[in-house]
Amino acid sequence: MKSSMFKSLSLGLLTTAVMSLSVTHAAKQQDENIEVTPIQKVTQQELAAIYVLSEVCPSLVKDDAQFSRGYSKLAQEYLPREKDAVSALSKLSKEKKFKSILAEARTDAKKAGDSKNKEICQELTTYNN
C-alpha cells in the first residue's frame, strides 16, 4: 500500500458507492431474471485501512456513537457475508499473516496526519445517514 491511507479510503469509499449502485441495479435486474455479476473482491489492504480507522478516529471525532455507526456500516459493506463485520475485522487484525499489512496501514495513517485522518473520520460520522 504505497499511497496514503486517505487515497486508499477515498478509493474504497468510491468503490463502495459504485458497488451500492451496482447492487441496487442488480436487485432490479434479478426481478427480470437477468444474470448478475459478482461483486469485486476486497483486498487485505482495504480491510487494513478500514480497521485502522477504528484505532485512529475515536480520538478525532466528537460523536463516537455516530462514528461507530458509520464505521460499522462501512465494515459491513466490505464484508457483507459476515454477521458482525466489525468483530470480523478485529479478529483479522490479530492474525499473524495480516500483521504486516496492518502495520503498513498504520504507517500510512501516521503519514497522512491528524488533519487528513480527521476529515475521513468526520465523513464516517455521517456515512450511516
Automatic annotation (TrEMBL):
Residues 43-124 form the DUF7944 domain. Keywords: Signal. Residues 1-26 form the signal peptide. InterPro entries: DUF7944. NCBIfam families: MCR_0457_fam. This is DUF7944 domain-containing protein. It comes from Acinetobacter terrae. The lineage of its organism: Bacteria, Pseudomonadati, Pseudomonadota, Gammaproteobacteria, Moraxellales.
